[in-house]
Amino acid sequence: MKIAVAIKRVPDMDTRFKIAPSGTAVDETGLKFDMSDFDGYAAEAALQINEKQGGGEITAISLGPDVVQETLRKALSMGLDKAVQLKADAVPFDGYAIAEALAAELKGGSYDLILFGRMAIDSSNQSVGPMVAELLGLPCISAVSQLDVSDGKTVKARRELEGAYEEVTCPLPAVVTIDEGVARPRYPSLKGIMAAKKKPLEVKPAQLGPVTATVAKMELPPERAAGRILGENADAVPELVRLLQTEAKVL
Amino acid sequence: MPAYRAPLDDIRFVLHDVLGTEQLRALPGYEEVTPDLVDTVLDGMAQVCEEVLFPLNQVGDQVGSTVADGVVTTPPGFKEAYATFCEAGFPGLSCDPAYGGQGLPLTLRAVLDEMVCSTNLSFGMFPGLTYGAYEALHAYGSDELKDAYLAKLVSGEWAGTMCLTEPHAGTDLGIITTKAVPAGDGAYHVTGSKIFITAGEHDLTPNIVHLVLAKLPDAPPGTKGISLLLVPKYLPTEDGRPGTRNGVTCVGVEHKMGIKASPTCQLQFDNAKGWLVGEPHKGLRAMFIMMNGARLNVGMQGLGLSVTSYQNALQYAKDRLQMRALKGAARPDQPADPIIVHPDVRRGLMTMKSFNEGARALAYHVGMEMDVILHHPDPARRQEAEDLVALLTPVVKAFFTDVGFESANIGLQTYGGHGYIREYGMEQYVRDSRIAQIYEGTNGVQAMDLVGRKLPAEMGRLLRRFFQPTHELIERESQGDLKDLAEALGQGFRRLQQGTQLILAKGMRDPNEAGAAASEYLRIFGLVAVGAMWLRMARVAQDKLAAGAGPKEAFYRSKVVTAKFWMTRILPQAHGLMASIAAGGETIMALEPDAF
Ligand SMILES: Cc1cc2nc3c(=O)[nH]c(=O)nc-3n(C[C@H](O)[C@H](O)[C@H](O)COP(=O)(O)OP(=O)(O)OC[C@H]3O[C@@H](n4cnc5c(N)ncnc54)[C@H](O)[C@@H]3O)c2cc1C
Hints:
The complex is a heterodimer of chains A (251) and B (596).
Chain A (H helix, E strand, L loop, with lengths): L1 E5 L2 E3 L21 E3 L1 H17 L3 E8 L3 H11 L3 E6 L7 H13 L5 E5 L10 H9 L3 E9 L5 E8 L2 E8 L2 E5 L11 H7 L4 E5 L31 H10 L5
Parallel strand pairs in A: 1-4, 1-6, 4-5, 5-11, 6-10, 7-10
Antiparallel strand pairs in A: 2-3, 7-8, 8-9
Chain B lengths: L7 H12 L1 H5 L9 H19 L3 H7 L2 E3 L2 E3 L4 H10 L18 H35 L2 H13 L3 E5 L15 E4 L5 E11 L9 E7 L12 E6 L1 E3 L5 E4 L2 E6 L10 E13 L6 H37 L23 H33 L3 H36 L11 H9 L8 H12 L6 H16 L6 H27 L1 H36 L6 H18 L2 H11 L2 H5 L6
Parallel strand pairs in B: 3-6
Antiparallel strand pairs in B: 1-2, 4-5, 5-11, 6-7, 7-11, 8-9, 10-11
The structure holds flavin-adenine dinucleotide.
């Protein structure tokens, strides 16, 4: 099956972030970057589909400056077949601008299936996948936790709901955004890493759409003040209640 | 809960900027080892170690490996982690491609060893021993044995062990009593008791390949009569699957201080079928192949645990608020200052940091020399590398594990009482690191190897391989912006030279003099060898700063400061150690045993 997987390079979220002097972005110095978690699940889902069916080709696509090549190489070392970098100086906040560039690239590719992560774990917009589907005029199922395309014609997808799940189907070609649960992404093997060096990585200019939404201000949550011990046992309760009323204003 | 982040910036600095990965790439066979490839491999290792091995470290300690009816069960999660580790291809990282290995540099194996030891030493013992078995078999095994076993060891499908120790024979392998009797068909029957066998029995792999030291019936006495035999737990079938159970059973697993997830087994061999590896009576030679690699690996255990202990101690020192800075509050907005303001806390952290980064550079340097031994086209250069590695092996093993243990202990101390409490994880690093000073030849025995074997070897040729370049390095730096550091290193180096002369002169007349000086001497050696790496790193850092380091400026500045710390606050230990050596062994040997 011919599959495309859109991949975003994001900072490791397990970090103590700082805001850049601009006040509208995080300070990137010292940050570690990797593939967005859900994109990893999407890449794994694509690999499993083609391993089961035999043959096929999976293309990884990432939009951004040259550093995204690192992330694309990682996708290739997991086993994806080729990669395309849509070169842009920076990744805009506006998902629509990105979606236009991706759609322009994906349009002529005659893909059977186009996979996204449910959302990028840094910006959490959940918008690019559905927008690309719209631009390409394809059906879209989002936040999928199980995926079956074994008949080559239809998508059978499972979506987790609060306390239940639903099964959704649509014809191929289609856009699907992947939630965790599909399968843990495999770690790149040494063999895969060696092989990835020889796989094609094409660089093209990104045809970004117009940027209308931008970040005006970014702020970290205030530092938590140190806790206070009001006293031990029941004697402390009246004071606690008073503070909850006057200071914390929760009662 | 402790945390671990692979120190990739520092690892890359050492590999790319200090040692130069292009040196590796210049070696025939490593043409594909580009800086890019190295970086991707490092990322891959870091991810598995951080995400798969580290989360199992504490549970491994708490549950341990257990035995019932001769069956050993590893802690929960170990099997899955082992499968992931093997799927990633790590057991075969530097192994021969003819047997399915990736043929990547041993330098990268040293990096992997560090990360594995940092994240889960107990886990690391399984592939560690397997790699040792691979090395001995690859170097000395017959073609039949190689064909039957090597690919399985390279992939990690089967695990390996090394069975040397017996109840009455630890350091002194010449007195082992395990016997190997010819079975008539070219094979042997092996009978005897082995103790303390790491990974002697477990549930990670369907078969285990034991490499066993034993004596043939016609063996000459002592170490000249020891043979090495391969004894599989299950005899392989024609198509390479585990077949009939062989006569080897696990009769017990030790309860011990640390590395509790690594089963330390008592093995009983009862007419077990085995095959000779190498020539009869020459088993120790084959065993030393794997012991040299294994000794360097054990050195990395000291370093690896020190790294994790440091990372957590550092974070704790920034978070924990106690008392005020001596010169006035650093955080007046808080009830107290973070303990990192206190000079004594910083002394501990700097001691750990300067050891970790310096030892890492030395270890990778040795790793790169091992790659030269394997692949350099010029035999003279290969010999040079072989000499240097032989000389530094006991130093890396003993110095790294002694200081690694001390360092893990400083990490615990940084946590105060919390360091002593299990859930914080710091006491586990102290317990886990303690064994590294003992196995693979105790550190006392490493010191004897350095003094008794390596110093006099080839009329001091091995020694010159270290002394000559160190002398040149100090000369080179004695004028410019690092002259203070060069001067300090020069003073330590002179102590090392004095110690060497004294040992060679006195030790010739009285071997007890050499024995009495050995441990102090080895420590001076380690201090100077790490010092030499610090001078090289400071040079690179200075040059980067001069060229304008941009966002990495703080990184390089910290290198220069840390180099200075090592030279001026740690290396001077050499003077005191030298004074002890100079005092001679008289008081050590004077008392009769009854007078103690
Ligand atoms: C957890 C663990 C795992 C192990 N794994 C393995 C394994 O996988 N395979 C294996 O074969 N063995 C293994 N061992 C055994 C280990 O290698 C031995 O314990 C070690 O070699 C020391 O031997 P010993 O215990 O008999 O001490 P001894 O040899 O009795 O030594 C006692 C003390 O005397 C000192 N000493 C002895 N001779 C000299 C000398 N000539 N000069 C100076 N000092 C000397 C030693 O330094 C030591 O301090 C393991 C041990 C442990 C605890």
